[in-house]
Amino acid sequence: MIDVLSSPTSRAVSVTELNRQVRDVLEGSFPVLWVAGEISNFKRYDSGHCYFSLKDAGAQVRCVMFRNRAALLDFQPREGAQVEVRAVVSLYEARGDFQLTIEAMRPAGLGALFEAFEQLKKKLAAEGVFDAARKRPVPAFPRAIGIVTSLKAAALRDVLTTLRRRMPGLPVILYPCAVQGASAANEIAAAINAASARAEVDTLLVCRGGGSIEDLWSFNEEVVARAIAACSMPVVSGVGHETDVTIADFVADVRAATPTAAAELVSPNRQELQLRVAHLQARLARALRRQIEARMQKLDGLQRRLRHPGEALQRRREHLLRARSSLQRAIGQVLEQRRQRLLRDRLRLDHLAPDMAQRRLRLARQAERLAITMQQQQARRTQRLALLGARLAALNPTAVLARGYALVEDKAGHVVQAAAQLQRGDAVRIRFADEAVDAQVTATPHDSQPQLF
Q1: Where is the OB-fold nucleic acid binding domain (predicted)?
Q2: Least packed by Cβ within 10 Å: which of 67, 99, 172, 431?
């Protein structure tokens, strides 16, 4: 810092340097302090900065409140208003004006209220009343809603209108009390205690419309905070406007910005629920349709795998026909070979011209033997064919069923080959020669007498 009181030979300082040093001296010498006075020549510029004078009966001082601080005000400063400001003593270097840089502002006379507010807040916080662990969730689908407010409060109409719009059939029970005045705090606490003792609602809504800090002070009383903390059901606080904060907001399980917002928090939205139900119905319908289609495809696959006994008989019949045809072709080939051989022998006989009588006799005997051989072979083939037919008939499931036997299938359509495959209560299907019946196993092989119904 330049020493302006040094010897006359010291260099001269500029006005800017002088004002900067004075500003530093002022800001370093005075702590941040509260100053009371009356607002004069108040102006708020488009930039958001506020300029005014603070005066009393004997003096005045220029003040500036920049935009970021002015935006935090919960009331509108006006000409002639008595206020208390928290300020930094400073100097505007460009003009050399002594001024206060305002950091906070409150209406005059509220200092004691703010002090009481902070003391109670610290006390309850130290006791754990504000702890998040004790906060209870608001039921998503309450049986009934309780409202603690005044019958004349405009907030009551807003809350009822919101509840009627969102969920018309939701029961509402009103616990009337004063929300402003000397006895309001005790009445609010009594209403909350009555709702807690009667336990006829799922959620309790404590609300009132906006107002000054004095109007809302009942919700900053300890008796109200204690009643909210001891309430047997979740409490939603909807006091004042969005910028208003009370002790009740800190104690309540949920804090809403406005009474209308509180009503929206505690009530389900009928339209949203209807849309959700419709969406779930559509999803359920799609899921059921997919399951039905999958079951239908599975049924088609089982039908393709199922083979009727008639198909086995048809395959056996076709095999028999092919065997008969092969036998006939074999016999025909043998006969043709014998004919060819006979023809060749006859040609040789004619060519050699032997003893015709003897040859004829020999030929007759050979022809006789050939005929006998052919008859024997034909008889053997016929006997074999009959034997194959008899064996095929013996393998025919229908023929077996016709002799008094039955075919037992389980519920999956598989043939039951042993009694051990069944358990008591199993559903089976019994096929006879003419038709099939459904039955149920009432006893297992371990029982004395298994029975089928």
Answers
A1: 14-106
A2: 67
